[in-house]
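Holo model, glycyl-adenosine-5'-phosphate. Inputs:
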Amino acid sequence: MAEDVFKKIVSHCKEYGFVFPSSEIYDGLGAVYDYGQNGVELKNNIKQYWWQSMVLLHENIVGIDSSIFMHPTIWKASGHVDAFNDPLIDNRDSKKRYRADVLIEEQIAKYEEKIQKEVAKARKRFGESFDEEMFRKTNPRVLEHAEKMEALHQRFATAMNDNNLEELKQIILDEEIVCPISGTRNWTDVRQFNLMFKTEMGSTAEGASTIYLRPETAQGIFVNYLNVQKTGRMKVPFGIAQIGKAFRNEIVARQFIFRMREFEQMEMQFFVKPGTEMEWFKRWKELRMRWHQALGFGSENYRFHDHDKLAHYANAATDIEFRMPFGFKEVEGIHSRTDFDLKQHEKYSGRSIKYFDPETNESYTPYVIETSIGVDRMFLSIMCHSYQEEQLENGETRVVLRLPAALAPTKLAVLPLVRKDGLPEKAREIMDELKFHFNCKYEEKDTIGKRYRRQDAVGTPYCITIDHDTLKDNTVTLRDRDTMEQTRVSIDQLRALIEDKVSITSVLKRI
Ligand code: GAP
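Output:
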């Protein structure tokens, strides 16, 4: 069922110009996608919402735009050359490749599903008087599943932290995990696979050096932090924000734009005094959750997931997960990265990049709290939540994208009722005035009903219809996407009525 909905969302994205498979006429390229005419607008609005929430709302956060290509030693220093690996395993029968950690995580989720099923069954049986907490504590089947889940969880966390590939394979064998394609347990050993893409810089083979496509935008911030601090006269604590492309040679690229090989990140590194990092970690966790929830999708659709296995640079980490049609999934990571990166860059570059505190006259290497969110994952979560098929009173169904108005690609569709009698000219006149304030689309083809449906499908929050009365009394019909209510309003009022509701400022004020 949820799978069907997801398939519909993917085809809706294509049919309405949001997302196309890359190089489609050449049969596509694995896990690479292009954004179409509506997709790019939605994506730009997401980026603007993030950027403004960081750079406009915080006096001590500024932005940069660093290059994708960086000195190759940066990736040695950051640990990515040696440790940015995924453990992969192949099934000999299907010849399919999987991430060993993902296979085990899915197995853990299966125990949780079993518990949920027991709870749902009992709720049905006991009705009103059902005490879920008591049931979870006492039901023998639930306890058995919970115990197995916890044991597996512990074993998995230990294996991952110890980088113990043999143990990962053993877990897969012991849990009798089968390949979803062949249904067999004919597994190879687990091997490490580095996710960075390599290329060469320089004109001759001999003179060329190997460089990497950045797997995160964060390093561009680290190596520039002192430039920004000095030229911007920033005082710790301060932050640097950046939006840009990142590249990872993902082993298993699945679920549309959820896991891509070329994607975009919005990252902010917040530089703090050592010893204060946990306080700031907590503060940024709360702030980022508020940013997500200001979009109005309901707090029940978000949760934090604290990491068992910490990345090589972190002393605390959590994910903000969103309820997608295929379960709760990570959209954003918040990491306390210690002084690992800055210290490593000092060591590998041989330059001092310490911060000098003019108030205390001390020099130190700041600690860093990072917030890191994928634009594409955010896009997917918004699409999944907004896509709805609605049964209308007249028996018809309509597909409507209930996008937050501030993120919608088009804010207002301007529709003359017919293509004659001076109505198109009047509609153009209104459009020429309003287009300076928000994104408007003019459409005159097809019946008004069909045009409304097309606008619903791309998430346009408002439509206005220009009819014969407009020429007499300067009023238009304003239609609301969500309620489908139509009201008669004066043309002079349009801008004031719409502008505030569709502005990013209106969402920023809710954070
Ligand atoms: N600088 C830290 C960092 O990159 P991460 O958890 O690996 O941390 C941060 O990535 C975010 O980037 C994720 O929460 C996700 O939204 C996005 N992301 C990571 N890999 C991705 C991929 N292959 N495709 C799409 N988005 C991805």
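The chain has three domains: 1-66+216-391, 85-191, 406-508. Residues 184 and 385 are 36 Å apart (CA to CA).
Archived with the compound record.
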